[in-house]
Amino acid sequence: MYKNKLILNLFLTSLFFILNLFSIEAQTEIKSLKVYAGSSQDSIPIIDGQKNSLTIEFDVKSVGEPMFNIIFKFCDRDWNPYNNLFLSNTGYNTVFQHQMFYEVLPPQIKEVDFHYKGSFPNDRSSVDFPFSGKWKFYVTESNDTSKVYAVGKFIVVNNLIEVSAKIKNETLEKIYFPTDLGRIFQLDLELNLPENYFPSNVQGIEIIENQKIEYPYYVDRKGNSDLRAYYWNGSNKFSFMSKEIRPGNSYRQVDLRNTTINMAKQVYAQFDGVETSRFFVSPGKDLHGGSLVAKYSDQFATYLDVTFRLRPPAEINSKIFLVGSFNNWQVLPEYEMQNSGGLFTTTVQIKRGIYDYQYVTADLNDGKISNIDWYILEGNNWNTKNYYSIFLWYSEPDKGGYDRIIGYQQIMSN
Predict the structure, then answer these.
(1) CA gap 276, 271 in Å, rounded
(2) Which end of the chain has fewer CB atoms within 10 angstroms, the N or the C?
């Protein structure tokens, strides 16, 4: 009798522990994931793996101290992680639970409980990034790395080859209406390939505008067109041209830092009214697609439910999406704005800070986004100041072969 009761108690205790563990995991959530170079919150996450650091920070909603690992994986040009033992960087690709330290947030911040911030590479975790190219990291459960809470992206460059890029104003020959849509930037890049590289392994160049990592321009040596072309002189000289780059317009901004104006939990993105088209509005200052978030230890670093309101011109009949630094400039179905009598709205939970954003039109079919138009609601002006990060891609035959960045330059229009 006693033995049976003891077994029953042990069973109930184990069951309680398991149910409690599942409850903790169900309530665990990562918010406000930010990835940037060095200490500049608004910078694009591009680093020299030997000289500069990558910063990762995020808030965590959890009933107890989080139990995470961070796993770094080297990727090909299309962000697919390599399944190659020589490229796995085993032993130097994981930040383990005991290496991660969390700050407890002020009790006034109800939406989250902890904050994490780490810079890499660092001595404590022994993490490094030995290959230039694209990288992903995964924030996982420490005891089950298949459970992923967040994913981030960054780019490691080794500027081994000097490249020379320049940008100039051009007009597309095709007739557009409004004619402003015909305004473009033409980007030209030239380089002389050193003798220790194989010309046949040069893949092409990739151009990222500001922080639009998900929507790059490619000039691939596989083929030429009227808008994108490359030239090789048969020896060591290459030149690349991309002329389909529209300048767009400066970004809109939502500024939630003023606690007097934004006292309530529910606020509007623009306190002074409903937004409309900026097609004919001249460019102004912005963060080049970035954001500046309130310091995590500040008692006012709370999360607000922010409603964005847009009344576009009558001729806009496409679906409209909100896109910005708070969703890594991705046009996503969950950010579609709802139309009510010509007023488009959507509400997003955002931590106090200042964020660049825009409105874009696109088609949405079976959960897939297509025909994205960044300009019809925002404008297209040659005076817009954009950063363009340019990468020279090379097919590296070493270690089983991988996509490698061997040249890098960042330039600004105007």
Answers:
(1) 14
(2) N
β-pair partners for 346: 308
β-bridge partners, 206: 218, 391
How far is the C-alpha of 320 from the C-alpha of 372, rounded, in Å? Answer: 10
pLDDT at 214: 97
Contacts for 331 with CB less than 8 Å, ≥ 6 apart: 321, 323, 360, 362, 369, 372
Q: What global pTM score does this model have? A: 0.91
Give the Cα separation of 198 and 218 in Å (integer): 20
**Amino acid identity of 226?**
D
Q: For residue 197, name the pLDDT band (cuts at 50, 70, 90).
A: very high
Q: Which residues are registered as beta bridge partners of 351?
A: 303
DSSP one-letter string for 39-76: T-TTS-SEE-TTT--EEEEEEEE-SS---EEEEEEEE-
Question: Torsion angle, CA of 270/332/409/403, rounded to 10 degrees?
Answer: 170
pLDDT at residue 254, as a whole number: 97
Contact 376, 347 (CB under 8 A): no
Please state which of the ranges 24-38, 292-306, 395-409 shows the lowest mean pLDDT.
24-38
d(CA 377, CA 364): 18
> Given this model, what pLDDT does residue 9 score?
53
Residue pair 240/225 in contact (Cβ under 8 Å)? The answer is no
User: CA nearest 154: which of 250, 33, 332?
Assistant: 33
Alpha-helix runs per DSSP H in 170-241: none
User: What was the pLDDT predicted at 7?
Assistant: 52
As a whole number of angstroms, the distance between CA 330 and CA 345 comes to 18
d(CA 389, CA 29): 32
Per-residue pLDDT tens over the stretch 102-126? 999 999 999 999 999 999 987 777 8
Which ranges of 133-189 does DSSP label H, i.e. alpha helix?
none
Q: Pick from 211, 70, 203, 44: which is nearest to 149 by CA?
A: 70
Token pair in block for residue 89: 């960087």
